[in-house]
Specification:
Layout: H1 6-18, E1 35-40, H2 51-69, E2 73-75, E3 79-80, H3 85-94, H4 98-116, E4 126-127, H5 131-146, E5 150-160, E6 165-167, E7 172-173, E8 176-177, E9 186-195, H6 201-206, H7 216-226, E10 228-239, H8 246-252, E11 266-275, E12 286-289, H9 294-301, H10 304-323, E13 333-341, E14 348-354, E15 365-368, H11 374-383, E16 391-392, E17 418-419, H12 430-443, E18 447-453, E19 458-459, E20 461-462, E21 472-475, E22 479-482, H13 510-513, E23 514-516, E24 523-526, E25 530-531, H14 540-543, H15 556-562, E26 567-571, H16 577-591, E27 604-607, E28 610-612, E29 615-616, H17 627-634, H18 636-645, E30 653-654, H19 657-683, H20 693-716, H21 719-735, H22 737-741, H23 747-761, H24 766-775, H25 792-796, E31 799-806, E32 809-817, H26 822-831, H27 833-839, E33 844-850, E34 854-859
Parallel strand pairs: 1-2, 1-26, 3-4, 12-14, 26-27, 28-30, 31-34
Antiparallel strand pairs: 5-6, 5-9, 7-8, 9-19, 10-11, 10-13, 10-18, 12-15, 13-14, 16-17, 20-25, 21-22, 21-24, 23-24, 28-29, 31-32, 33-34
Bound molecules: ligand ANZ and zinc ion (ZN).
């Protein structure tokens, strides 16, 4: 009996493939073929591929191979996101230099990828920690600096004590570090480099609409992250404290608002607030400043008691953060003793410091409208501040309330709502009032309509060694001076002492730090921070088109041919960070005139996680399954194929070793079936027409399988059901074995069957497919062999279309075998995508099946 032995087949083919370095090479544009760029997110070279990688790359590899077989010119590259903290940690632990550690990990992981049989064009491999790559990070940084897109500012930054470095806002998750889930992120005041991603906020938001090939989930996350708010800014003059007599101050307490009409002296200071509801400005009864607001500092400087109280507020905030209740801090506040003037009605509003005001959103100050805003209501309630209703639903018969509301009047956004207690603006609808009031503010120079984004500029300075040096020089005389292009790259010193000590490690290397100023030639110091590694991954996929270019980051014409990426595949955990940064980078490069596309990728696919026993695989849980083990036991084909078979690719996959064994047994059946009949198939001549019912049934199943898989590659990507369909085909063939043996199936039909079976397997189990292709005597390169075409007539013959109704209305049409049972009809109808969507969340009360005619679902 023949035995399927992947341990023999796979290394043999791997050697043959390795001997053909151009096997997966792209063709020049002149080939005239349509191009297809399939990209999988590049891995961090931690040392070992994990199952998440295996899944990601199995999906991409299946797609690349399919597209080659469809006649496309395919770009399928791979590289290494090779800078980053783990290399420094490993250096501390094992005393190996980060570069050595990283490069040896890369070598090992590259071997693992080859062993998996992944079809990468390694000629354009990108390794981000090599100077040939990172010099272009520096080049981009300089271009951004010239355009004012890279700038330096002192600011509060997120600091992870465990990483001992600054984090971008995108790297802070629920107040904790993205790498250290239990580490509360601290705030530090530092001078940092920022990239002005906010310049592109509107475009990043608008262009999401054109990314129809991206999961809606990712687009929604990006929309929320960008967080656009339409509203207005209004400036409130601060009253001169000295102009108020002492007992008047006593009388006011801090909650009372004096009647309008009194003249007040302005202090020259003012407070700008951002509001999305300027229409409620007559209902404002205080102003609230973030504890970090500049004016709070000014007030505190002259008022020790206030300074103490604000410090306490900050301390409470810090404690709450440390206790982990960042979101749920109780609202606290302190009255500053100062007043501001509402420019609409001249009212005096007490100025408070509120712990619920964010320093870095809007202007860091708000007008508080407790009658209509939940947070303000809670605050006002606690401190006994006045509440005044200024908006009512239009259709109310109730008399206008003038007392204080029991709860904030929410929601009041309907177009029906109208203003009351609002002077000249009374009776206007909310939306109209918003426009008129913003215009009024602008005419009188105390405000204007304003759009605000939640998105912040991207802080890219990191106090780490293993990253791209920022190409800037600090000169005492000339200030900040960019490194001239012809002095790039600024090389990372190869050997450096890595310690747990804070501060940038590069700062401790005099050979690196001390330099001369490019402007005056005098003594100067290099910038010692390195760039966030998300810079590296923001544009690596452009470099793949011409990775050996040493004159430019890439060749513009080649990029114009390959871009945008046709299909990007990776984990949904990158929905915000990497996928926003790389969209931003593309737009910057477009504005530099070196790319023509507005967006990096037309289609994005986010695969589910690989889990084990219901939990994410991790060392700490001890549930890690190693790809190497699986390959050693079952072969690369079975491992890859299981990764595609065990779940739809967008869902989480619970790794079951039994399942891998099952796939391996299936491959073994395929192998034996093909090998038993290879000789006959090889001798076949003539066409593969069906002359008997058996032949017809075999060809029908074959063409149904081809149709199913072809359609799935076109969009749905349910590779699990594709593989199940191949299994069914093999079952059908095995069931016909007796007929095959006794000559009821012609050699030609047999050949047609086996040949196409191998073609269908090629994207999923390349080793076995190549082996059998050879055994069947096929001469062409399987990689470029044309994908089989299904013949509708052959596939459909015995199938009929059945309409599916929901509550009597046609919702879909399913295709089933003519003789399908009632149960099959019912199950097929319920599993149909359109039907499933229509009945989701509803109760199916009754299913009426009229065999061969109709399925009707009654739902409630
Ligand atoms: C008055 C008002 C009345 C507001 C009302 C809302 C409802 P989004 O949609 O998130 O942009 N706000 C502004 N800056 C803030 C800050 N730095 N920290 C905390 N809150 C801030 O929300 C904008 C609203 O959030 C603004 O509109 C402001 O409160 C508050 F019935 O102004 B509003
Ligand atoms: Zn100088």
């Amino acid at each position: 009996e023949l035995r399927y032995n992947p341990a023999e087949i796979e290394p043999r083919w791997q050697e043959r493939w390795a001997a053909q370095p151009d096997l997966y090479a792209t063709e020049p544009p002149e080939s005239g073929k349509p191009k297809y760029y399939v990209l999988e997110m590049l891995p961090y070279p931690s040392g070992q591929l994990h199952m998440g990688h295996v899944r990601n790359y199995s999906i991409g590899d299946a797609l690349a191979r399919y597209m080659w077989m469809q006649g496309y010119n395919v770009l399928h590259p791979m590289g290494w996101d090779a800078f980053g903290l783990p290399a420094e940690n490993a250096a501390l632990k094992n005393n190996t230099p980060p570069r050595e550690w990283t490069l040896s990990n890369i070598a090992h992981m590259h071997k693992q990828m080859d062993r998996l049989g992944l079809s990468y064009d390694w000629r354009n491999e990108v390794t981000t920690c090599l100077p040939e790559y990172y010099r272009w990070n520096q080049w981009f940084f300089l271009r951004m600096y010239e355009k004012g897109l890279a700038y330096r500012k002192q600011s509060k930054v997120n600091w992870c004590p465990q990483c001992a470095t600054v984090l971008a806002n995108e790297q802070v998750v629920n107040g904790c570090c993205w790498r250290h889930e239990d580490q509360i992120v601290e705030q530090r005041d530092l001078e940092q480099w920022f990239l002005r991603i906010t310049n592109y906020a509107q475009e990043l938001l608008d262009d999401l609409n054109q990314l129809e090939g991206w999961p809606e989930k990712v687009r929604t996350m990006q929309r929320n992250w960008i967080g656009r708010s339409e509203g207005a800014e209004v400036e409130f003059a601060v009253e001169d404290a000295a102009s108020i007599s002492e007992d008047e101050q006593q009388r006011r307490g801090g909650t009372a608002i004096l009647p309008a009409g009194e003249t007040v002296k302005a202090s020259g200071q003012s407070i700008r607030v951002f509001t999305t509801r300027i229409d409620t400005i007559y209902g404002a009864t205080s102003l609230q400043l973030a504890p970090e607001h500049v004016l709070v500092k000014e007030f505190s400087a002259a008022d020790e008691k206030l300074a103490r109280e604000v410090d306490e507020l900050l301390e409470q905030q810090r404690k709450a953060r440390e206790a982990g209740d960042v979101g749920a801090i109780e609202k606290h506040g302190v009255f500053t003793g100062h007043y501001a003037i509402n420019p609409f009605n001249g009212e005096r509003l007490p100025i408070w410091v509120g712990n619920y005001i964010l320093a870095d959103y809007g202007t860091g100050a708000i007008m508080s409208v407790p009658a209509h805003d939940e947070r303000d209501f809670e605050f006002a309630h606690k401190y006994g501040l006045e509440m005044r209703v200024v908006v009512l639903p239009r259709r109310t018969d109730e008399p206008t309330p003038d007392g204080e509301p029991e709860e904030p009047l929410l929601p009041f956004t309907s177009e029906e709502s109208i203003l009351i207690n609002s002077g000249d603006f009374n009776t206007l609808g909310c939306q109209e009032a918003q426009q008129k009031m913003a215009a009024y503010a602008q005419e009188n120079s105390f405000g204007q309509a304003q759009v605000t984004f939640r998105l912040k500029d991207w802080g890219v300075s990191r106090q780490r060694y293993w990253g791209t040096p920022i190409p800037m020089i600090h000169c005492e005389k000339d200030g900040i001076v960019p490194v001239p292009d012809d002095q790039l790259p600024v090389l990372l010193p190869p050997q450096i002492e890595i310690t747990q000590q804070g501060g940038s490690p590069l700062g401790r290397d005099p050979g690196f730090v001390n330099t001369t100023c490019p402007k005056c030639g005098g003594k100067a110091r290099r910038e010692t921070d390195t760039m966030d590694t998300f810079v590296d991954s923001s544009w690596y996929f452009y470099r793949y088109t011409s990775a050996r270019n040493d004159k430019a980051p890439f060749d513009t014409d080649t990029v114009a041919y390959w871009f945008p990426i046709d299909q990007y595949i990776g984990g949904v955990e990158h929905a915000i960070l990497h996928l926003i940064y790389s969209r931003f980078w593309t737009k910057v490069m477009r504005d530099l005139g070196i790319v023509k596309n507005d967006e990096p990728a037309t289609r994005l696919f986010t695969q589910g996680m690989v889990i084990k026993n219901g939990a994410k695989m991790s060392k700490s849980k001890g549930n890690v399954v190693s790809p190497e083990d699986m390959i050693a036991r079952y072969g690369a084909d079975a491992t890859r194929m299981y990764a595609l078979f065990a779940a739809p690719p967008d869902r989480d996959l619970d790794w079951q070793e039994d399942g891998v064994a099952g796939v391996s047994r299936f491959l073994s059946r395929v192998y034996r079936l093909a090998m038993r009949h290879a000789e006959r198939a090889k001798q076949a001549s003539g066409g593969a027409e069906a002359n008997s019912a058996t032949e017809q049934a075999l060809l029908r199943k074959l063409h149904q399988t081809i149709r199913k898989i072809t359609e799935d590659f076109g969009g749905r990507w349910h590779f699990n059901t594709c593989i199940a369909a191949i299994m069914e085909l093999v079952n059908t063939a095995t069931a016909a074995e007796a007929a095959i043996q006794n000559g009821e199936v012609s050699d030609a039909v047999l050949r047609e069957l086996l040949r196409n079976l191998v073609l269908l397997l090629a994207p999923f189990a390349p080793y076995l497919a190549f082996e059998l292709w050879d055994q069947l005597g096929e001469q062409d390169n399987l990689l470029r062999a044309p994908w089989p075409k299904f013949e509708e007539a052959l596939a459909r013959e015995d199938e009929i279309e059945i309409p599916v109704q929901i509550n009597g209305k046609l919702r879909s049409v399913i295709r089933v075998a003519a003789e399908a049972t009632q149960d099959t009809l019912r199950d097929t109808a319920m599993a149909d995508e359109k039907v499933a969507a229509a009945i989701e969340g509803k109760q199916v009360v009754k299913v009426i099946v009229v065999p061969a005619k109709l399925v009707n679902l009654v739902v409630r």
